[in-house]
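Fold it.
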Amino acid sequence: MRGLVIAGGVFVVVASLRAFRLDDWPLYLAYVLTALVLYPPRVEVLPGMSLTIPALAVTIGFVYIAGLPIVVLCSVPALVFAGLHRVLPERWRTWLPRVPYGAPGTNGGHGSWIEDFSPSREALVDWGSFAVGLGIRWWAASAVMPEGRPYTEAYAITVGEFAGYAFWSLLATLPVYSFIRPVLTPDHKQRAAQQDLALIMPLALTPFVFLIAYGYHTHGLEGAIGWSLGSCGVHFLLKRLTERRRTVEEQNRSLEALNRELADRERLSAIGKMSSVVSHQILHQLGVIGLYADLIRNTEVPSDASDALAQARTHARAIEGALGDVNRVLRELLVFGGDLRLNLYAHPLASVIAETVSGCRAETDERGVVVRVECPPTLTVTLDKLKMTHVLTNLLRNAMQVSPTGSEIFIRAVMRDGWVEILVSDAGPGVAADHRGKVFTPFFTTKEEGIGLGLAIAREFTEAHGGSIRVEDTSRPGATFLIRLPCDHTL
């Protein structure tokens, strides 16, 4: 396949040499001189992919004016600069433009065989595709203009452009350009940029091709050269856009690096805060355990053995309570860092609330608090029962801890505007206005005992269900937490 492309290029060059006419020498000279000026401007639109928009525009435009000989002449500027690269001293070469020879739609002019006079198979494929694309343009335009003056009719150039870009687009889909694989990376952004480039090329070149042909038709060589030089405007526009893209990409990289640094700092801060809170709670309970263990060890044997046994049991219960607090802290840490994947099933909400209240019955009886539940028995919600029970348990325990003895805690569930709303209200001191935005933050707590994970876990689990949780503004004393869950939760 690559051999066919190279052979096609050779065939076009032979046809180009046979098409030379001495009478057209002003056209050839004007093209070469203009191309020498327009070849250096180039834009690296993608890493490893450069475009010479003005040079391509003047080459394609002069194909419709001067015919196939332009295929041979288009290599003259590249050969001149390549020769200068070979003969000039090294310190001067850096000031000269490096002029590759390539076709749009392939490697964007990334070949380097003309620069070092060492043609490779890949570079020859690139050259062949470019030459054949130019030849197809001329033959297609000439087919609709038998007298060989396609620049006089816009439809002839239109046919030629369609044929030329169709050929380049076809070659771009074939496995003939192995040397551009580093450019066509699997990255989606790079592929999107490549697709955008395939659209930019005809939009940038074709209008100037028409204008160059129109300028020659109306004002002769002066008009063609004038519009050829005018194509530099597209070059500077693309260069400006490319520079802006690079600036934005650099800013994005800096922003991403800054975000990573901030995330690392926040994570370290959270770890430090967590370590401080957890250490404080565990050390406090270990101190309690050590205190009661010391009391048991140093207890004097009273005359009545039953008193000693009762005192030992009291101390043992205190130790068990401290161990329970330590286990609760560790369990909350495990739950907070656990998996948020949901095991969703339809459950009667009344039974879920009833199980939550039943699980906290011992604590409510101990504190002398009454829990009132209002929930329609037919209200069914698709949820993860274990996680939602954990949410309600955390809210109910918070309410019990702040409610005075003999007060009531209300749990109400209603359907409103396509959402299930669950309200948990207590008769405690309420939540201060400046704390309402913080109570769901991990490790934020106003209690002497606790690590501030209960409400954070409640928010994580509720949001995993597609819902929300917040502190309601109410006129009644105490605090009211509102949970909103979607009625039809889908996986």
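Residues 2-230 form one domain.
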